[in-house]
Amino acid sequence: MINHDNGFLKKYPCRKPTIEEKMQYVKWRGILEAAESVQGIPFLSKTNMPDAVAAYRHFMEGSGTTRDVKFERYFRDDPSGRHTFRTICMEVRDAAYKFYMSNYNGLDASFNFTSRVKKAKNESNLDVLSNTRIYPHPVTENWTKTLGVFSFWVECRVDVSCIDKIPHFQLELSIHVEDMYNFNPYQVDIATGIKDEENGVFEITGLARQYLNVGIAKGVLKWKGRPMFASAPYPKSNLGS
Prior knowledge:
Elements: H1 19-37, H2 50-61, E1 67-68, H3 72-77, H4 79-103, E2 109-114, E3 118-119, H5 141-144, E4 151-163, E5 166-181, H6 197-205, E6 211-224
Parallel strand pairs: 1-6
Antiparallel strand pairs: 2-4, 3-4, 4-5, 5-6
């Protein structure tokens, strides 16, 4: 079971909004609509944040319902996402190979396994091009505003054919991601420096509601024999767009 943070609701009791807070909510709805109106327009700032504005709208609409996110885009478009995906591929290949060699060496085989739950870490100075086996916080403004320190786990299906004593692997992986979308006391927006309390008050007054982002990204890895070292190129996957 994943224990998600509870944002401002952990620190402050729920209450009715004041007139000033209702006016503040209207202001932020206007900011949201302005941001939505410029998405995709070239040569303007803040125009490449489709996931961020969609996530914020779901928060502001106040339903609190779980929202499905296309996390394939995060693993494709964000440098930290690409690093995380490469790291996951490296780890599941290693795990599949070791399990096969320990239990089925020289035989055809099929098996499944699931990783433990892991978290993306907020490392602002991380070199995401390194081969360090960690999972960095998003880098692009689009995804830092969409995801927090998210949790994920990986489910794998592995099929192995042993041809001329060399195992040929096909691994289907499903990366499950969860993140509670909310605002937190004493924190600020990474890009703008705006305090979270500007929006956190909407959580405790019911004008907006925190909610759970969930999603699954899938891919297929194929290789033969022992996996390459971490510094070597990773096998191509069919990670969706």
